[in-house]
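Render this sequence as a predicted structure.
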Amino acid sequence: MMAEGLSDDGRLITCEVDPKAEAIARRYFSKSPHGNKITLRMGPALETITTLSGPLDLVFIDADKINHSTYYEALLPLLMVRCPITRSLPRIAIPALHYNP
């Protein structure tokens, strides 16, 4: 689990649009000793991204494959220099080398 690798004051923000998946995720988060580091936000990921402030240390983009490039562009201004961005299928890391603070 990603939250396990975080420092005690670290936080993981995850997005979900399916209420059934949300219920399952919240159940498992509550059982985890690291669940207090996880914030689950309901709604479209792009709406959540617009509410975030940087810098972000790591971004993992999953699901909603059609919008991966949209998320990437929206997240770029929030990234720390050389922040890794990973995505599922295929699993690749995209270093954010063209970040301009």
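Summary. The longest helix spans residues 19-31. The CA atoms of residues 62 and 90 lie 10 Å apart.
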